[in-house]
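Lecture notes, continued. The same structure-token format from the folding unit now serves as the input rather than the output. Read the line below as a description of shape only.
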């Protein structure tokens, strides 16, 4: 199938989405696929009843990182790509804390951008609106997490969920499998059970993220 573009919904907080983003960037590099970065909030989808919505707080970890991305998308979509790559690598590989305002400012500076963009993003109410619109799009399609992909024909898929993203021809082979999935409108799920060795690999891969996070992961049951 000749897919020209895909919408990739992400939350910087999600270690699974980050691993998949590494793969989709490889596919982009090898095939010319256009990747359009869109947003999704794990804080909102897994919000405990009675707690504030992330947009009701002056600063929310994942939501605020996405608001920075939303502001950057206003300026140049390529900046969203750069921000997600840098913030994601900081959290999930380096064990830094991009969800803290001062670290977000440092990372923007590393990209050659003005650290004051953090304050600009938080002061701009339209960044709330943009994140909510992208998030609501996933929810309306029945989505529940990230990575979530939207294809040109409107189909929506969750995944692929990988912990060791393939490279080269293997990355393209996985892309072909994902695209082929869209041929079967009522194929909902295939899942590989996680053996103890898989759990150990996941724990080791996610160690920087687990060390750096300032939140307790809460995940509602998958529909």
């Amino acid at each position: 199938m000749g897919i020209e573009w895909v919408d990739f919904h992400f939350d910087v907080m999600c270690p699974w989405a980050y691993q998949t983003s590494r793969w989709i960037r490889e596919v982009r590099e090898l095939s010319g696929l256009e990747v359009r970065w869109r947003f999704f909030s794990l804080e909102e989808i897994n919000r405990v009843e009675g707690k504030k919505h992330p947009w009701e707080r002056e600063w929310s970890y994942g939501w605020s990182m996405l608001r920075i991305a939303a502001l950057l998308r206003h300026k140049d979509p390529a900046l969203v790509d750069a921000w997600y790559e840098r913030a994601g690598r900081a959290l999930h590989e380096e064990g830094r804390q991009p969800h803290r305002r001062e670290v977000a400012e440092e990372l923007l500076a590393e990209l050659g951008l003005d650290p004051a963009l953090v304050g600009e993003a938080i002061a701009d109410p339209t960044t709330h609106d943009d994140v909510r619109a992208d998030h609501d799009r996933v929810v309306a399609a029945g989505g529940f997490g990230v990575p979530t992909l939207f294809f040109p024909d409107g189909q929506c898929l969750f995944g692929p969920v990988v912990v060791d993203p393939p490279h080269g021809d293997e990355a393209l082979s996985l892309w072909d499998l994902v695209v082929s999935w869209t041929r079967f409108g009522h194929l909902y799920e295939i899942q590989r059970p996680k053996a103890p060795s898989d759990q150990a690999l996941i724990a080791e891969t996610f160690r920087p993220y687990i060390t750096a996070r300032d939140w307790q992961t809460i995940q509602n049951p998958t529909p």
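Point for the exam: The longest strand covers residues 5-10.
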